[in-house]
């Protein structure tokens, strides 16, 4: 009897890719259709300038959404932006989007926030889409099962003009996370452990799919944190297959499909998971049960470890290059080899960013800070990821907890994650930060960054040094 | 876009791993909305001390390597932020070719859009080129033959996507090409998708 030929099992990434190929070229590249683009003030001006210089129109204005987040101040928002360059940059986004007929969420708008926070909040981000932004943390949106990746300004222009990009298909990497996270351990600890296991370039050329019982149990907010930092291991794309958690989050959001369209969309979205037996090029297993709260000690997000551990000894490095890399990081961070992380005193705390600026992040930090004061030697800011997060936090009284603890409560933006506005560390200052990059100079020239979860940052603020949040639960 | 065919230059050795785009172009200069004239900010915090004086031992500040058109750089060069200001600034410094064992993917893609050639090599030939760079010897990079050569060395062959090679050699305007050659295919795709996933077109 003849066998009915069955299609080969495919990964989620392969399905998303195949459903967006406009055409394949001879050399293995493809022209990929881009469903949605988010634009912000830093990477878009040159793209709009290119459009203008060539007399080109935006192919699908309704597929674009713009918001200023990087350069915006997080206080005194009732006044004009003090920095003339930032003021000009934010104004340029408004005039460019007006000229090309695109929607721009103004700084004064209730919906303003970090691109990667408001995309999900508004329902702009949906499963099955291709979504790009001139920002490397666009991988965040993969938490919905969207093929989302960061691009440069030239590619932003290409998308504005053609709604396509010339791309090469990535390889498939499956990060399987099984087990139950312990108290005080969350998605940020998971992704720091994943990046630490993969290395800073370990996932270059791959799209990561996060799966396993732990991932299934994560909220949308936690999944967004997980996918957000995929780029810190080199992967432009991080994915979680959509499920009931995803649909429940999306339903009723302003830009989500409604009524019959919703039913039709969900029916399609349910097909978006890796088939049984789909082949991955590489698989990494992470044990959630055993995971301790994590913190970074170096100048690359993969230079991390359990908060109960110590800085490495360059002498025990496995290669000359590895030794030099550790030495360079410890030197910049002003730390000796084999220093217990919990001995490291901090000056500043930053709670916010597209990694950890969502309502659950603020709740977990507030739970630690409630009834406590931050150490006298420490100052810090809490910057909600969006206006909506800010309002929700205020409804729940979280702002009062932060202020009573001694932290400043700010307006939404990227703030001290990228230090383009006036939120900036002084040279040599050390910060417990919930952001995504501990690069040299990232939070200001000469500033030193230790990445950790919101709960860990809150505990560290109280202790005045890097702390194990489990001692504060 | 300008064409890239071949160049001969000294190559500056920058072997440190994970030189991210924040190091290449610090974020505080991202408030500038132009894409030209950014070379003065390249590697700013490595090139200049706190008072703005040039750091004498930074490789691109040394007379032997200032104006080098080639960088032999460490693993994962250009990782991190997607800012195209990083390749724009390097281009403005005169850099046209980067040779590493791996690059941040977005940075690498951005180079190709700016007439710059990022070459990925296995560790062994990379180490050989790093040695030559450190000795101040010239390298010739020829995209027409996909080779890197120098005095007394067997030319090293490198891989590159054929269409990316052609784009550099011809100085393609990718947008113009897509609009000219792929417009029908894009329209046909949209028509198919509009009927299978109509919710994606509700607001057009």
Q: What is the assigned CATH homologous superfamily of the largest domain in chain B?
A: Aconitase, domain 4
Report the β-strand fraction of chain B as a percent range.
15-25%
Strands of the widest sheet of chain A, in order across it, are 5-4-3-6-7
Number of domains of chain B: 2
CA(first)-CA(last) distance of chain B: 32 Å
| CA-atom Rg of chain B in angstroms | 20 Å
So how many helices of chain A?
A: 16
> CATH superfamily name of the largest domain in chain A?
Aconitase, domain 3
CATH class of the largest domain in chain A equals: Alpha Beta
The order of strands across the largest sheet of chain B is: 4-3-2-1-5-6-7
Rg of chain A, rounded, reads 22 Å
Sheet having the most strands of chain B: 7 strands, mixed
Alpha-beta classification of chain B: alpha/beta
CATH fold title of the largest domain in chain B: Aconitase, domain 4
Strand content of chain A: 15-25%
Q: What does this molecule look like?
A:
The complex is a heterodimer of chains A (473) and B (204). Chain A is built from 16 helices and 19 strands. Chain A is of the alpha/beta class. In chain A, the strands form five sheets. A five-stranded parallel β-sheet of chain A has the order 5-4-3-6-7. Chain A has a five-stranded parallel β-sheet with strand order 17-16-15-18-19. A four-stranded parallel β-sheet of chain A has the order 11-10-9-12. Chain A is globular and about 60 Å long. The mean pLDDT of chain A is 97. In chain B, 33% of the residues lie in helices and 15% in strands. The mean pLDDT of chain B is 97. Chain B has helices spanning 21-24, 44-47, 85-93, 105-112, 123-134, 162-170, 174-181, 183-196, and strands at 6-14, 70-73, 97-100, 117-120, 138-142, 147-149, 156-157. Chain B is an alpha/beta fold and 204 residues long. Chain B is built from eight helices and seven strands, in the order βααβαβαβαβββααα. In chain B, strands 4-3-2-1-5-6-7 form a seven-stranded mixed β-sheet. Chain B has two domains: 6-172, Alpha-Beta Barrel (Aconitase, domain 4), CATH 3.20.19; 173-204. The two termini of chain B are 32 Å apart. Chains A and B meet through strand 2, helix 2, helix 3, helix 5 and strand 8 of A and helix 4, helix 6, helix 7 and helix 8 of B.
